[in-house]
Amino acid sequence: MSILAWIIVTSLFGGMLSVLFAAALTLNTRASWVQMLVSYAIGALLGAAFLNALPEALELSKNPAQMTGTVLFGILLFFILEKLVLWRHCHAEECEAHDRLPGAAIVATPSHDQHDHGRSGMMIMLGDTFHNFVDGILIAAAFMADVQLGIVTSIAIIAHEIPQEAGDFLILLNSGYTRRQALLFNLFSSAATLLGGLSTYFMLQDMNHFIPSLLGLASASMIYVAMSDLIPGLHKRPEIGATVQQVALITLGISSIWLAGSLFTHPA
């Protein structure tokens, strides 16, 4: 096959394969387990940010201070985006922010208690799209250097993505999306891998300097969602048994990312 054909096949197939494999692991999960497995998703997000995306961004960046500034900018950006989603929601229907105002009548509904009106799901999809775009850039760059290197790089990226995509599914389900919506959104996000690959093939020199910034924004989205939207929900179960379970699952999520990175290291 030509280099372009390799890039198209591996970017498209690799992105879809990681999503479908992650879906097989998560879409059969009982609804009662979703809240518990959110702890695993937190660990997978933090592991992907601090053990994968951020170290790679710092390694590629010529200015580490500028890169950490990009992460800070990304966190602020996602905070503003979440505020906009809240503002839209508060003008469309009963709002959780209004419900909690002192003296206001509290409207208790299942969606208010269990979901966040899609906010964390939207945040993580934006960040995952950035990350998938960068994966496509890395795949294309590797194939343009050597076909064998491209194949090994693609395998490494798919292996890294599976635990993260599984975490994304759980976050979408916890955020109130249906299983079908979670699958479709993740498949749509995975298409960014192909877009990144094609963009790199046709303008490799112009794309290189965007990689660290895109990785920084992807890291920011993972950190923000984990720390702002997901971890506060765990504090609603302060009992010691639940805390031990949460810590164990967070550690498992981090460990799965570390293990994938150890077994399938990106070729230099």
SSE arrangement:
Elements: H1 3-26, H2 31-60, H3 64-92, H4 96-99, H5 110-114, H6 119-145, H7 147-174, H8 179-202, H9 204-207, H10 211-234, H11 240-263
Mind explaining what this structure looks like?
This protein is 83% helix and 0% strand. It has helices spanning 3-26, 31-60, 64-92, 96-99, 110-114, 119-145, 147-174, 179-202, 204-207, 211-234, 240-263. Helix 1 packs parallel to helix 7 (147-174), helix 2 crosses helix 11 and helix 7 (147-174) runs antiparallel to helix 8. The radius of gyration is 19 Å and the shape is globular.
Task: Tell me briefly what this model is.
The chain is mainly α and 268 residues long. The protein contains 11 helices and no strands. It has helices spanning 3-26, 31-60, 64-92, 96-99, 110-114, 119-145, 147-174, 179-202, 204-207, 211-234, 240-263.
Question: What features would you highlight for this structure?
Answer:
268 residues, mainly alpha
